[in-house]
Amino acid sequence: MTNVITTPIFYVNGAPHLGHAYSGYLADVYKRFRALVYDESCLLITGTDEHGQKILESAVRSKTDINLFINDKVQAFKTLWPELGVQTDIFVRTTDEQHQNLIQSIWNDLVEKGDIYLGYYQGLYCLGCEQYYTDYELQNNCCPIHKIPVEIRSEETYLFRLDAYRKQLIAFYHRSPDFITPSHYSQDILDYLKQGPLEDLSVSRVNVPWGIKVPNHQEHTIYVWIDALFSYLSALKKAGYDQNALTQTTHIIGKDILKFHAIYWPALLLAAKLPLPKKLLVHGWWTINEQKISKSNPETLISPNELIKKLTSDGLRYALFRQKKIAKDGNITHSDLVEVINADLANNFANLVKRNHTIILKYFSGSIDSKLVNQATLSNQSQLIIKYCEQVINEIFHFYKAFDFYQASLFWKEALDYCNRYFHQRSPWEISKGKSDISVQETCLVTSNLVRLLAIAAYPLIPTLASQVLQELGEDIATCQWQPTCDLKTVRIKETRSHFKRLVKP
Ligand code: MSP
To answer: Distances in Å between the alpha carbon of 47 and those of 78, 102, 458?
Structure first.
């Protein structure tokens, strides 16, 4: 069965921002890595979360009909992904009829089993998060995430018996300590579950007309998070898979939506007798001037579409991975991004390719036969760099597998540093001053082959640039496979280009 990777489905009360783009990039790196290594077409699911009071209020504020309002925002997400080079397969909308039917049928099932019942709830509600908070979770009576005051709400509501699944969840987390990456979150969740009974979860709202109606009780709409979480299942069905595909599914989520995915989602799945997902990959937040990028804070809103015009999509995604560990928060400045991109992609990578290939074209008519260089009698320097790069490629492989794209990019950059040092120390351009052909051929052949290896390894991070470089080397990324070793191949180049222009510093 194929692997599945999901981004969260995004609220449509605003335009996509950089935090959203990051989820897509994470999913895309994973998808491309699996394609490269396992020749597997991993299913990438994304979509939009379109119901609820928050969305309705945004439409009312902008004096736009709700359907026009959401369609416009949905379109922004639909066009975002191809522009970012994120290869999505399924785009699910919570307003899709098929999805709404699925939600109502799961609802009926849970009511029939007695897991959902009609009751009454009073609590402190944050509209930004669309969730209730307990007193001790608040900071100065405000939501810890949105920093806005919570509202006291008391209303008739349907409740889900969350605690009925606590023991099963504890057993699950005991069995699967690596369910959440980074794994310390699994321990935190386990500790939380062990603390004692879980409050029943309020799963319907009255007076929220924009949502999926509770079957046979039209004054109630189904809680947006129930609606949203099961969109993953709707998307699988849309792709022609059944519920078992959940066992192969990795959800990418920000740390603010961990509780929904680590407690509510598995509990609901257990209640509905559905399989649990494979993994949660939790990432931290991007900040600007140390403030979380968020729709509610306009100063932080950078449009990814605009940013890639300046940085290129490869540049942006590479810099985001190189800047911080996935699970940590990280601050963004335009100049930091430009610096990383220029140093690693323009100088260390594209420039090395261009300089090496220019020599091959000028002095060897674009071709160096691997037979001319005997791998066994290579200079020590060449043998060392090849061995070193092979080791690094092996490490990078394991970093990708462990979703550690930060270390993958860091090791890749270090391997490139070494390749550049090797190239400089052996100064093949001195052929013009009489340096021996054989030494220059060795340097250029080894460099080209290492570039091929490193381009393949970097393909998930910088797909366009890596593909172009490989194409110059006569390789088609569509048929390339992960290369763990550097067997020297004959190099044949027709032309060389500047594959990545230095970006202008702001
Ligand atoms: N609709 C819910 C998710 C439902 S999934 C079944 C939601 N939507 S959201 O649009 O508010 O957020 C979507 C994702 O973007 C979340 O994973 C969130 O963590 C992420 N980000 C929002 N702001 C972010 C940053 N500033 N930085 C990184 N990611 C952030 O929650």
So the answer is: 8, 16, 27
Identify the CATH assignment for 3-311 out of 3.40.50.620, 3.40.470.10, 3.30.565.10, 3.30.2350.10.
Answer: 3.40.50.620
User: How confident is the model over 413-468, as pLDDT tens digits?
Assistant: 999 999 999 999 999 998 888 878 888 999 999 999 999 999 999 999 999 999 99
Nearest CA to ligand 1 atom 16: 254
CATH number of 334-492: 3.10.180.10, 3.40.50.10540, 3.40.50.150, 1.10.730.10? 1.10.730.10
Instruction: Tell me if 292 CB under 6 Å of ligand 1.
Output: yes
The DSSP annotation for 345-382 comes to: IIIIIIIHHHHHHHHHHHHHTTEE-GGGS-GGG--HHH
> Tens of pLDDT along 470-497?
999 999 999 999 999 998 999 999 999 9
pLDDT tens for 164-173 read 999 999 999 9
Is the shortest distance between the CB of 228 and ligand 1 below 6 Å?
Answer: yes
Helices (H), 115-183: 166-175
In this structure, is the dihedral angle defined by the CA atoms of residues 6, 11, 12 and 14, taken in order, positive or negative? negative
